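quick q for whoever's on today - can somebody do inverse folding on this one?? i tried earlier but teh output was garbage lol. tokens:
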């Protein structure tokens, strides 16, 4: 094991993407992440395409650097095994509703009695402190609730979801940060604690950071919504033969853009020279960009924008990313051999450390692949006892 979290042991009782996205990062950074699964396994195991049953692509993408243990926690024998693991764990992360954890006898007060140093992190839809507590929630539900869907309205005014699981992954990063902060605090206090990371409450300030606008003040000083993001011509711009994302932002960048565009009259225009005036008239400036960009090809623009240090990138299709020259140069998209799935693609860790770099510890596990290994190594079970647990259905051991 390597990475800055070497020596940290995490019990991962999450599924789908919110929790697995966070715990995969913990594993990449050196933590020993033990994924506790039901006998059916994480639902993403069944999302195609897949080469073998229970090894769907999404599971492979969000569950590397983990070991899989299958426990049927509705059985007393499995719950005892879980408590043994809790006693040697640093962190427990779960994404089912707190009431369900309580029914399993895995609420914080019970587990704190077993391990006072345990960091107990729940990530679910709505805070237990408010009237929405206990409601089921997935990414789409939170996108609707927190304003994302309304912000993506199409030309007919109909709300739309973003074409990525934006809430799950954003909240997952907050889960990651919360756990690391709690680990740091425990180094000083010696005590664990319970953490709640609710999706709704996490996403509201995430969206409102730039959109609270006039409502920042009480009473309000104008409408809500960040004007620059809402104007008609804020979009990738058509060239003669494609599309480019371009964003002149500073006064100097706007001047350089209009100079290479042959619009010298704009160099001293107040809409360019003054930041406040520019903000008020940004829609007009973007309309000019939309008018100018079709005068050259994509490659011609890329060369000019690069030479003039104006923020830009071509509009990549998903397939383009597999051959992106920058990602290739740093070997970011890796091909590795999976013991059951053959050759698969995965991504390198984006964050680098000079002394304690993280990395891909192991590919995503088969369902129950490490049940026997973990229970013998960490929970003190003998081979015969594990066979008995398997026979009564309390655990599942992968063949």
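ok took a stab at it. sequence:
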């Amino acid at each position: 094991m390597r990475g800055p979290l070497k020596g940290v042991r995490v019990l991962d009782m999450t599924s789908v993407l919110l929790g697995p996205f966070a715990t995969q990062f913990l594993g990449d950074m050196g933590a020993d992440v033990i994924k506790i699964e039901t006998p059916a396994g994480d639902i993403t195991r069944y999302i195609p395409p897949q080469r073998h049953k229970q090894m769907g692509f999404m599971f492979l993408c969000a569950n590397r650097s983990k070991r899989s243990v299958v426990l049927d926690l509705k059985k007393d024998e499995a719950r005892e095994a879980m408590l043994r693991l809790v006693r040697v764990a640093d962190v427990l992360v779960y994404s089912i509703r707190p009431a369900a954890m309580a029914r399993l006898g895995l609420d914080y007060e019970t587990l704190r009695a077993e391990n006072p140093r345990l960091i107990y992190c729940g990530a679910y839809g709505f805070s237990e402190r408010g009237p929405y507590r206990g409601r089921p929630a997935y990414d789409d539900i939170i996108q609707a609730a927190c304003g994302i869907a309304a912000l993506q309205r199409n030309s007919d005014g109909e709300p739309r979801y973003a074409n990525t699981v934006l809430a799950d992954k954003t909240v997952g990063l907050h889960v990651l940060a919360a756990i690391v902060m709690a680990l740091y605090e425990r180094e000083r206090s010696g005590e664990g604690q319970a953490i709640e990371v609710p999706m709704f409450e996490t996403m509201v300030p995430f969206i409102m950071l730039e959109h609270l606008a006039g409502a920042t003040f009480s009473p309000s000083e104008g409408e809500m919504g960040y004007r620059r993001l809402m104007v008609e011509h804020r979009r990738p711009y058509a060239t003669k033969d494609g599309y480019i994302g371009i964003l002149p932002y500073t006064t100097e960048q706007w001047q350089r853009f209009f100079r290479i565009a042959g619009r010298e009259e704009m160099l001293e225009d107040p809409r360019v020279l003054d930041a406040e005036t520019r903000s008020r008239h940004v829609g007009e400036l973007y309309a000019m960009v939309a008018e100018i960009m079709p005068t050259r090809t994509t490659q011609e623009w890329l060369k000019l924008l690069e030479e003039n240090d104006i923020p830009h990138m071509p509009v990549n299709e998903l397939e383009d990313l597999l051959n992106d020259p920058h990602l290739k140069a740093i070997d970011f998209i890796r091909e590795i051999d999976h013991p059951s799935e053959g050759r698969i693609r995965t991504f390198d860790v984006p964050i680098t450390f000079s002394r304690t770099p993280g990395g891909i510890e192991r590919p995503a596990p088969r369902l129950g692949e490490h049940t026997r290994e973990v229970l013998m190594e960490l929970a003190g079970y003998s081979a015969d006892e594990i066979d008995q647990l398997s026979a009564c259905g309390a655990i599942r051991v992968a063949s």
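fwiw The chain has 19 helices and twelve strands. also The two ends are 25 Å apart (CA to CA). so keep that in mind when u check it
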